User: What shape does this take?
Amino acid sequence: MLKAVLFDFDGTLADSREAFLSAYNKLAQRHGFARLTHPLFEQLRSRSMRERCKALNVPFHKIPFLIGEISRYYQASMMEIPLMKGAREMVRDLQAAGYRLAILSSNEEKNIRFFLKVHGLDGFSTIMCSRKLFAKDRLMNNYLKRQKLKPDQVVYIGDEARDVLASQKSGIRVVWAAWGFDGAENVRKAGPDFIAERPSDVLQLISEL
Assistant: This one.
């Protein structure tokens, strides 16, 4: 029986595309990376992380060292980041259905808590974060251990291929949020269990688990 719904943050709950573009371009200007325009962003949605880095002249091995810097630029935009359309109703309906809700993200906890406060979302009992882009499976495993849950009692909602791969490593079923950052081609290769075209699809999908 499903007991908990875990969420990615950026691109799933927070419509942070503009904030990300602004933060990345400040980073790019400082380090001499290629600038990210809206058309280029759309082109790269269906590329892997390594392919994106290559297109932008960003050394892939430097990503862990750049995350803190881009996060500082990102923080300056927190007041302006909107909630994804339909996300409030999705969270409300999942709460009403009795599911535990949590956020597992590579963003910073203080950013997430600030965002939730600004938008009046108080339904999340747990927020767990890691700056390591490819370590969400560890967050998932830690969540399961802390909450004393089995993988089949949890589902993850995320918008990127790495969310799908992390869920698979942890044995957790995953719903791809098609309204987010990654393009369909990129994510479908990873093989999500379910696809939600819009936030209003989520409750119906998971109610059948």
Summary: The chain has a mean pLDDT of 91.
